[in-house]
Amino acid sequence: MSRFLAPRLAVHRQTASLGAEADLNRGLDLLGEVKAGRMPAMLRFYRPEPTVAFGQRDTRLPGFGEAREASLARGFVPAVRRAGGRAAAYHRGTLIVDHIQPQQDAIADAKARFGFFGDLFAGALASLGVDAGVGEIPGEYCPGEFSVFGRGPAGSLKLVGTAQRVVAGAWLFSSVIVVENAAPIREVLVDTYAALGLDWDPGTAGAAEDLVPGTTVDAVEAAVLSAYGSHAELS
Q: With contact defined as beta carbons under 8 Å apart, do 59 and 5 qualify?
């Protein structure tokens, strides 16, 4: 049992993407439902359509319009998320995990939550053979202190980015795990970051299958559920 997790979590598998903006908004809608007590603490799993999720700060940069066009040119729908951070890209080869939970003082553990979930996702990937760690790697896209990375012969690859939305009485912790087919993600990030005027190292963008060939989204979902199952009852 962990102080960061409700003792019971409902598992919701969203079988089809609702669309880039609608998928982001659905998480916020569920946050409102959980806060109001109309839905229980939950895990939402889904595989998104190709999306570039821009941060609020990105929208204020002179090159934002060009970056939106660059994402569309690569077949990725531009969307703006309410959480912090810089642009992140994902597609059907990624797994998004939204953990939504009521908590009276939701802001109290906000930073500690990043550390706990970083360790949880690193452990899930390690169970599949990934040499995983937690921390920002130099030059990564959408840099974060608690990114999850995997070590490989050519260096470290960012595999999981996390973001959090806290409201009075509940929180949403969203994690994007890049599992398969990293090339399109790397390509669209090269174009969008260039348009935004942001420096980064494209060599840090990768997928779990780059480090452990044959790794699938289904296998990662099972590993994440197993990691959660050691802390909470899943239904």
A: no
**Which residues fall within 8 angstroms of residue 126, CB to CB, at 6 or more apart?**
132
The one-character DSSP state at 49 is P
Sign of the Cα pseudo-torsion (89, 93, 94, 95, in order): positive
CB 177 within 8 A of CB 160: yes
Angle at 71 between CA 188 and CA 79, to 5 degrees: 115
Judge whether 81 and 24 are in contact, CB under 8 Å: yes
The DSSP element (H or E) to which 6 belongs, if any, is none
Q: Which helix (H) or strand (E) holds 226?
A: helix 217-229
Condensed to tens digits (0 to 9), the pLDDT of residues 168-187 reads: 999 999 999 999 999 999 99
Angle at 159 between CA 89 and CA 167, to 5 degrees: 70
Under 8 Å between Cβ of 89 and 188: yes
Q: Give burial (CB, 10 Å; 0-12/13-18/19+) of 3.
A: exposed
pLDDT at 1 over 70: no
The DSSP bridge pattern shows strands 233-234 and 8-13 to be parallel
Provide the H-helix boundaries in 110-202: 110-126, 183-196
Burial of 87 by CB count in 10 Å (0-12 exposed, 13-18 middle, 19+ buried)?
buried
Give the mean model confidence (pLDDT) for residues 197-215: 97
